Amino acid sequence: MARIKGVDIPNDKHICISLTYIYGIGRNLAKEICENTKIDPTTKAGDLSQEDLAKIREEINKHLTEGDLRREVNMNIKTKMEINSYQGTRHKKGLPVRGQRTSRNARTRKGKGKTVANKKKA
Q1: Partners of residue 8 on adjacent β-strands
Q2: For residue 79, what are the contacts with CB-CB under 8 A and spacing of at least 6?
Q3: Which end of the chain is more exposed for a tag (fewer CB within 10 A), N or C?
Q4: Cα distance between residue 40 and residue 14, in whole Å
């Protein structure tokens, strides 16, 4: 397994798919990286030479990924919470941030359902 940016990328998958295991790299950016390094996107990650991996590492270093990106996202969230913006207050309360309904679903954000006392079933 090759390590790029501290992440083990799987050897048995195409390189354009393997690169998506790195936080901050999606399918489009992975394809763009393959184009810029002139590596065939359908090549298996295990078949790449050390020179190819070095080219990919150089190209990835031009983009914000992994720890730096996570840190920036967390700082943005903290800033919103400090200035008491609408999104910041939603983050504080643990509710959906981007306008989703909360009356029916939102269990991903709100957690397991809480039982309400004395609520009769109709």
Answers
A1: 3
A2: 88
A3: C
A4: 9
Residue whose pair of structure tokens reads 């609520």 in the numeric block: 119
The structure tokens 């048995």 sit at: 12
d(CA 109, CA 97): 9
Run of H or E including 79: helix 66-82
Query: What are the structural domains of the chain?
Result: 2-66 (1.10.8.50), 84-122 (4.10.910.10)
Phi, psi of 45 (to 5 degrees): -65, -30
> How confident is residue 103, by pLDDT bands cut at 50, 70 and 90?
confident
pLDDT of residue 106: 86
> In whole angstroms, what is the distance from residue 15 CA to residue 43 CA?
6
| pLDDT tens readout for residues 24-51 | 999 999 999 999 999 999 999 889 899 9
27: amino acid identity, one letter: R
Check whether 121 has a pLDDT greater than 70. Answer: no
Measured CA to CA in angstroms, residue 85 lies from 71, 80, 90, 96, 118 at distances of 20, 6, 9, 14, 35
Type of residue at 92: K
Cα–Cα distance between 73 and 37 in angstroms, integer? 28
